[in-house]
Amino acid sequence: MREGARGFVPSFDCGNVPCVINRDRLVQSFLELVAIDSPSGDEDAIAAELVVRLRSLGLEADQDAAGNVIGRREGSGEAILLSAHMDTVEPGRGIKPVWDGEDIIRSDGTTILGADNKAGCAVILEVIQSAIEDGANTRTIEVAISRGEEIGLVGAQNMDYSRISAKVAIVIDSGGPPSSIQGQAPYHSTYDIEVHGKSAHAGLEPEKGVPAISIAAEIIVGLPQGRFDSETTGNVGKVQGGLVRNAVPDYTLIQGEMRSMVEEKLETLMTNAKKHVDEVRGAHPDATIDAKFGQAYPGYSLTPDDPAVKLLFPVLEGLGYKPNPHPVGGGTDGNVFRGHGIASVVIGRGGYNQHTKEEYLVIPEMLQCAAVVEGCVRL
Fold it and tell me: Helices (DSSP H) in 89-192: which residue ranges?
């Protein structure tokens, strides 16, 4: 290790040429990105900044029609996709990072920190710059930094995949060290059910109305809710209807989701839910019930012959880290990428207590993440 302005700059053996991850630069990049507010839906400023930074590193970079930042740096051999997301959850405006010793950065307790996922963005920038400075022979590097990830993977769902040729992706968007790998993620389906009834005065002539809320209640009791087993869950997350207390409501919206690690289990839940809605529809011919069920994203389980595993695991082991794949209950852009034929693996970048005001970042683990990712892009 070599001394740096604030601690050290660690050296790692990433193959034929040692890679030197610049701690000071990586941390400074993270802090500068955190200073740009980017809650979901308000990412224009951070997107513009990321385009500037990628272009300064020699990448062809701009935004696609959905607002995602897409970049490319020509190299040798097959392309690799490096991915993170630029948006954060709320409260994420006016973030004030606080040092806790030499190796931890926390939020000041009034907002999130934004390590999810400004740390991932900073890692991508440092990996590219480090590889250039090290004179390393690299794969063609493609970059996809999405917007709207925290509100349903919106950016990844609407990304311009014609601009991505890579068939393997490293998604830098998990908590813990880089050895913490999302080894299994669920299949995820959603539904929107609209009940159209008929309004009437609740005191004068309620019998002339068709109560949308009451009909919706019949639907809700038959929808999957809670945990069914260790692999499968369901939830009714939003019910909205009615305007005033003295009118029979003529409209109610129900929104919910189902998840399972096993696709067949999810299909069974979907089939049963649709059947139940049909039964309620038949019992209320005076109402109109519109139901839309669909897959939000596919699930996956990593296997030893998965292209992303075959790329990542040897790099981790070569740097002395034992891969630790584990199941997660949520989805990431990696799920969406897999639906587009890109074998993706999601790794940790040193963040903890995500989506809370107690969020913090462990700097040595972010450096380890950068070294692992650089090892993956090198030939």
Answer: 115-134, 154-157
pLDDT score of 258 more than 60: yes
Same domain, 58 and 170: yes
Cβ-proximal residues to 214 (8 Å cutoff; 6+ apart), any chain: none
Residue with tokens 């999302």: 182
Q: Looking at the structure, do residues 74 and 219 belong to the same domain, yes or no?
A: no
Measured distance CA(208)–CA(197) in Å, rounded: 11
**Is the predicted pLDDT of residue 183 greater than 90, yes or no?**
yes
For residue 58, the surrounding DSSP H or E stretch is none
- Which of 199, 215, 218 shows the shortest CA–CA distance to 207? 199
> Band of the pLDDT at 91, cuts 50, 70, 90?
very high
Q: What amino acid occupies position 255?
A: Q
Q: pLDDT averaged over the chain?
A: 95
Are residue 106 and residue 160 in the same domain, yes or no?
A: yes
Q: Which CATH number fits the domain that encloses residue 346?
A: 3.40.630.10
pLDDT (0 to 100) of residue 6: 37
161 and 224 co-located in one domain: no
**Cα–Cα distance for residue pair 224/236, rounded to 1 Å:** 8
Q: What is the pLDDT of residue 146?
A: 98
Cα dihedral 129→35→116→355 (10° resolution): 170
Please tell me the pTM assigned to this model. 0.89
Per the structure, the complete domain to which residue 75 belongs is given by: 2-185+299-377
Catalytic residues: 87, 149
Pair 181, 196 in one domain: no
Q: In the prediction, which pLDDT does 20 show? A: 78
What domain count does the chain have?
A: 2
Same domain, 167 and 227: no
Q: What is the pLDDT of residue 77?
A: 86
- List the one residue out of 287, 280, 154, 273 whose CA is nearest residue 223: 273
Q: Phi then psi for 181, rounded to 5 degrees?
A: -120, 135
